[in-house]
Every structure is written in structure tokens, then in C-alpha cells.
Specification:
This protein has 266 residues and is an alpha/beta fold. The protein has one domain: Rossmann fold (3-Layer(aba) Sandwich), CATH 3.40.50. It is built from 10 helices and 9 strands. A 5-stranded parallel β-sheet has the order 1-2-3-7-6, sandwiched between helices. A two-stranded antiparallel sheet has the order 4-5. A hairpin with a 2-residue loop joins strand 8 and strand 9. Helix 1 crosses helix 3, helix 1 packs across helix 4 and helix 1 packs antiparallel against helix 10. The longest helix is centred in the N-terminal third of the chain and has 19 residues. The protein is globular. The mean pLDDT is 95.
């Protein structure tokens, strides 16, 4: 599926994300919503679904990934009722043994980027077309494995690797800057040999233009996109759950989401 109306379809993706989290009464909805524009843009418009791969390193945002897979008809929409059920393919974190379309099991934070780098190297060695997209979290950047992976990728010629940082400034125990500040990110990554761009992670045009600019080069360094986002972002007019990392959605919040996104109740 390639969208004819990206904004409308990402609104539908957000609805599915919130609805499955409401039904499950869990699922990290605020962390899923902060990266909905990124995941939606990739799956619904920017990725070549035959040759590109996406790795969700911040695995707790899996509802957003599952919603994207529903939107492109990789998994049935009626699975919306099965998030985090014991026998469900839609586990709390992506599990490739349950659902092959998630590409790798993630959720032990820090590991997904290393896997993405391995895929990028594999494509380079085999001279295969396509790119590897990876999404990491800012709290996740406190993991040592992330920095080893960043250093390794920056020392290798991997123009087919594009990594987004969901820079929503929050993590499980509070604000990133108060727990373990990771800034200045741009200077650190440039010193490691990456190309670095900073964007509004909720701007569809900035996401698209940044990715397309990189893809047009077909050479150079791996790209790291610092995407400034907000936890619980639904629209410019509505942010839910007050930045709480693990809060659940209730019926009142769901109705506000439906009204804001102009989604028919179903």
C-alpha cells in the first residue's frame, strides 16, 4: 500500500495504536505516538517494502509498528484485540518468532541498532539494493551497546543505513536530561563519523525531505536523524498522558483522540 493521503492514513494509524492500547490497558501508548509520523511515513510512503527493512530498536513502541503493518495489510486489523495476549503475535515487544514482519526481536534496549548495522553490512557485501531504517529511543541511547554500534557504523562505509532518534526527552523514570543527559548529540555523532540532521519528528514534510535527500546521494556516511518529538503526541492541538511513559488510555482519552483525528467511532 502506498498512501494517497499520508496525513489521513497516519491519523488512522494513531487511532489503531490508541485503540489496541485501550483494549489491552497497556502497551506504552505515549511512546508509540511520539514516533507515529516516522513509522507511518516510512511504511506508507518512503520505504520500498520489497528491498528495505525497518528495525524498531525501542521495542516498547510496538503498537505503532503493528498499526503500520495493519495499514499495509501485512497483518489483519482484527488483531487489534490481541495486543499482549499470551498467545498473540502482537507481543508487548516485537517478537520475530511470533511475527516475521517485525524483522527482529527487540525490547532489550540497545540491541536493535546493532542488528540494523549487520543488515546494512550484509546488503553492502552482497551488493543488494535497498536500505535499512532503524528507530531508537533517547532513553535507549544511555545503553553502552548503542555507542559501540554508533562508533562501528561511523567507521564503516554504510550509506544504506538511516537511523532515527525519537527524541521525546522522556524515559521510564523521568526526563532524559535529568537521569543521564545525552546531549549534545549532533557533535558526538559527527565525531563518530555520521552525517547528522535535526528535524521536527512530527513534520511529515521534514521526514520525507530528509530521507529523500539522503537516498538521492547513494553514497557517503550513515545518516542519523535527530527527530524532536513529544510523548503522547496526537496532533498540534492534543497531547495525551502528560508525557507518562507507561500510562494507559481510558475511554475519555480515547474519545478525545477520535474527535481530534476525525475518526468515525467503530
Amino acid at each position: 500500500m502506498k498512501t494517497n493521503n499520508l496525513e489521513k492514513d497516519i491519523n488512522q494509524l494513531k487511532y489503531l495504536t490508541c485503540k489496541m492500547c485501550l483494549i489491552a490497558q497497556s502497551g506504552h501508548p505515549s511512546s508509540s505516538l511520539s514516533c507515529s509520523e516516522i513509522i507511518g511515513s516510512l511504511y506508507l510512503k518512503l520505504m520500498d517494502l520489497d528491498s528495505d527493512k525497518f528495525i524498531l530498536s525501542k521495542g516498547h513502541a510496538s503498537p505503532s509498528l503493528y498499526s503500520a503493518l495493519m495499514m499495509i495489510d501485512k497483518i489483519p486489523k482484527d488483531l487489534i484485540n490481541n495486543l499482549r495476549n499470551i498467545d498473540s503475535p502482537l507481543q508487548g515487544h516485537p517478537d520475530v518468532t511470533r511475527l516475521k514482519d517485525v524483522n527482529v526481536t527487540t525490547g532489550a534496549l540497545g540491541q536493535g541498532l546493532s542488528f540494523a548495522i549487520g543488515l546494512a553490512i550484509g546488503k553492502k557485501i552482497k551488493k543488494e539494493k535497498g536500505n535499512i531504517f532503524c528507530l531508537i529511543g533517547d532513553g535507549e541511547m544511555q545503553e553502552g551497546q548503542i555507542w559501540e554500534a554508533l562508533m562501528f557504523a561511523g567507521n564503516n562505509d554504510l550509506p544504506n543505513l538511516i537511523t532515527f532518534l525519537d527524541f521525546n526527552k522522556g524515559q521510564s523514570d523521568g526526563k532524559v536530561e535529568q537521569i543521564m543527559n545525552i546531549s549534545p548529540i549532533d557533535k558526538k555523532l559527527e565525531a563518530f563519523g555520521w552525517e547528522v540532521k535535526e528535524i521536527d519528528g512530527h513534520s511529515l514534510s521534514e521526514i520525507e525531505n530528509t530521507v529523500k535527500e539522503k537516498l538521492s546521494k547513494k553514497d557517503g556516511k550513515p545518516l542519523f536523524i535527530i527527530s524532536n518529538t513529544k510523548k503522547g503526541y496526537v496532533s498540534p492541538n492534543l497531547t495525551i498522558l502528560d508525557g507518562n511513559h507507561g500510562a494507559s488510555i481510558n475511554d475519555e482519552i480515547m474519545n478525545k483522540v477520535i474527535e481530534e483525528l476525525e475518526i468515525s467511532k467503530r
